[in-house]
Structures are given as C-alpha cells and as structure tokens.
Design goal:
Layout: E1 5-6, E2 15-20, H1 34-44, H2 57-60, E3 63-67, H3 78-90, E4 96-101, H4 108-113, E5 121-126, H5 151-158, E6 161-167, H6 172-180, E7 184-187, H7 196-202, E8 207-213, H8 235-248, E9 250-257, H9 267-287
Parallel strand pairs: 1-3, 2-3, 2-4, 4-9, 5-6, 5-8, 6-7, 8-9
Length: about 300
Amino acid sequence: MDSIIQRKNLKFVDALILGVPFYNHFYKKGQRNGLRRVGEVLDLDLELFDRFVRLEPAHDFRIGFKLMKKNRFKGKSAEEVINLINDEKRRFKDIFVLLIGGDHSISIAPFKYFSARARNITILQIDAHLDMRNNDADYMEKASKYAHSTLMRRAFDFGYKTVQVGIRTYAKNEYDLVTEKELSVFEWGRGPIPYIASILKAIKTNDVYLTIDIDGIDPAHMPATGTPVPGGLEWSYTNKLIRELFKEKNVVGADIMEIGSREDETLTEYGVAQLCYSIISYKLLKERGKLRFYE
C-alpha cells in the first residue's frame, strides 16, 4: 500500500495530524510509543478506499504528519506545554489540525486557542470520564488545574457549550456540577444506548470541536490507554457518530487522546489511525462540497 501521509514540505499540506507525546503518570515508559506507531500504521497499513464515501481521499488531498519531540516538554509546567502546542499549531493556522496525544490535558491547548470564539462552539467529548474536576488534588500530591481530569472544567470556564458522550464514571463533585448547570451528558450503562440523533440535537451551535479520549470507546476496541473503563462506545457506533457529526455540523478542530501502546498488539494504533484518516477525509471533503455518505 502507498503511504497516505507526508512528513516533509508540510507548508503545502491540506491538513495536518500533529502528535504530542506528553504523557501522565499512568503510562509506563514502554506504553508511550503509541503515537509513533500510529504514524507507522498511517504510512503503510490502511486501505485508502473509504467505503462510506466511496472515494480514496488520500489521492485527492495532502495529509501531513508531524510528531513533536518529547524533549521539548521536559521540565515544562502544564501551562508551558499548552503554550508550546499552540505555538506549533499557529504555524499551521490556515489548515485543519488534528491533534493526537497522550495526556488528555493536551486538549486544553486547542480549547485556549479557540477560546475567543468559545460561546459559538460546542465541545463534543467522547470519554469514559466527565473530566470536570477543578484540580487533581484528590489523587496528586502537587495539585494542578491543567490535568487530564480537568479539561472539561477548563472548557466550561472558557465559556464553551459542552456535550459529553460515553460517560460511565465520575466523582461526586463532578456530578454535582453537571447537575447544577444542567449540562448535556449522555451516560453509557444506564438505560438504552442514546440515539445519535439525540446527541446531535443537544449540540446547539453549528461549530463543533471534537475531543476523543480513547477510553470512551469500549476497551475491546481500544485497549492501550491509561485509565480503561469497561463498556463504552462500540466501534461502528463511534464511526457512525463521527460521520453524522461531519454531515450536520462544521467541525473546527479535533483531537484523539490517551493513546498508548502494548507489546505485540496494534489494535489501538490501527483504530486511532483509521479515525485520523476518516476525520481528515470528511473535513476536507466537506470543505470542498464533496462530502456524501453511502450507508
């Protein structure tokens, strides 16, 4: 198979997958190779024909891939990491950037990047966790407001509307906040699986930012992650939700986070690579008025 990505001449790409190898304490050293391995899958292991659009988008568009160097984050505070990511993102401000990474706190960077438009953007989160803590003091000795368990609280503080999907574990203070503020939360494992149409109806803005923690997807499909939770979105449901989202809304940015790796197994990396290809393809086809799905 031909590679669907290019790593050189990134000034001339139509969209970019930007890998951010910043990981939290849940990941051991050997688990932190997920992003590199996603790049390897994108290079050689995906079929270029998308059966839902019946096209080969990789032949029509130039998709770039860049993996930031790990040593750029060494000794940096969470705020400095966020600024480093946004500095990199500004280099590609005229194209669609899909972030992939380790710690879900990375998503606070694009939330900050788009914050001037926050009130007109809904963040659609696929996740097992609410991530609505104000800080991580209940499980970390040195508390931070920029932890993987706080990103949606920061989104709320920025003024974004939020819709959370796949949720199946949370702390009481998180439950109290989303109940008090009447936030849109679609839980898994309590009652029937929500209709995709109901999720899209809950999104009240045309512009959407999509953030995916892979633990929101059933670990049968995405096992290599930091805090897996049984249950979650099935693979076909996840892809259908993404297709319907791109059909109905304007996705201004996206990320896929908490990507790890496991020895002698590439299921997670393959799944992430497939999601990357789909998200980039649907975005570029939508921009050019060529997005049509064959279900």
